[in-house]
Design brief:
Layout (H helix, E strand, L loop, with lengths): L1 H19 L10 H18 L2 H16 L5 H21 L5 H5 L5 H4 L2 H4 L2 H16 L7 H47 L5 H55 L4 H10 L9 H13 L1
Helix pairs in contact: 1-10, 2-9, 3-9, 3-10, 4-10, 4-12, 8-10, 9-10, 10-11
Length: about 290
């Protein structure tokens, strides 16, 4: 919700300044300007974006509003899932993971923690990361390369929507100028009319420039940066998964593997050592 608050602050500050200077809000309401600028921006976004990137953009906007799902509680659930899987493999052999990895929707380990079970991308990444270990198709020293390739794809796919949004933000002032020029053309056609009418049309043309700049620097560009930070947090989450599974593949104990991942976490979401002990005890007791 912090994104909405920020947008409200931006819009509120602009409108408050306008009214304090003696302006009337009605002077800013010109639907034709919104249609011209909004339609041109949407059209250019569609032209720039491959189908998947376009879908990712519209999926990520609600995420920017709600906030990242990769929070401290999500890390706690992740560590419980990974500890449960690694402990199960150490006690009963790697083959004991088969039912959990092949069908995570019915796995008791996954289903205990809805934050992880309901995140399709996370469960898929965990299962695919464990699969080479389960099938014995990769040596331990090959795991960093395999997981690194997956992480590189995830990171690359983050850049597509960000690049398109940033280019759209860069284009919005230009679309505002287009709307303003169109408004001036309309004004020229009514130049011999009453002064009030000519003034209104000139004002409508200037609103086009105003909207283009405001939408660019006040909304679309900040949204792009917001999504960039969310992407960084998502990558950190997936790197933590990769670090634990890489450690497990090399024969490191589950607790040590999780400790390695814990030390690489950002301070905002890092779990303390005492909390890790409670986490282990909770999973051991389940």
């Amino acid at each position: 919700m912090i994104t909405i608050v920020g947008f409200i602050v931006v819009l509120g500050a602009v409108l408050a300044g306008f009214t304090m200077a003696g302006g009337h809000l009605g002077a800013l309401i010109h639907p034709s300007e919104f249609v011209t600028i909004g339609g041109a921006a949407l059209g250019s976004l569609i032209v720039m974006s491959p189908g998947k990137v376009l879908k990712d953009i519209f999926r990520s906007i609600p995420l920017a509003i709600k906030g990242t799902p990769y929070t401290r509680p999500a890390y706690e659930d992740l560590f419980k899932v990974l500890y449960g899987l690694c402990r199960l493999a150490r006690q009963n052999g790697v083959i004991a993971l088969e039912s959990h990895i092949s069908n995570p929707q019915e796995s008791k380990v996954f289903m205990q923690y809805p934050r992880i079970a309901k995140n399709h991308h996370v469960t898929e990444f965990i299962c695919e990361a464990f699969m080479p270990i389960l099938e014995a198709t990769a040596k331990p020293e090959q795991m960093p390369g395999l997981l690194g390739a997956d992480l590189a794809v995830i990171e690359e796919e983050h850049h597509g929507p960000l690049g398109v949004l940033q280019k759209t933000a860069d284009a919005l002032p230009g679309f505002g100028i287009v709307a303003a020029v169109m408004g001036i053309v309309v004004t020229m056609g009514a130049i011999d009319g009453p002064v009030e009418e000519v003034g209104e049309k000139v004002g409508a043309a200037l609103v086009g420039t105003f909207l283009g700049i405001l939408l660019s620097y006040g909304f679309v560009a900040p949204l792009s940066v917001r999504l960039e930070f969310i992407g960084v947090m998502e990558m950190a989450f997936f790197r933590a998964i990769a670090m634990v599974i890489q450690g497990f593949a090399t024969g490191v104990g589950p607790k040590v593997a999780l400790e390695m991942a814990r030390r690489g976490m950002a301070t905002e979401v890092r779990i303390s050592r005492e909390e890790m002990d409670k986490l282990f005890a909770e999973v051991d007791a389940s």
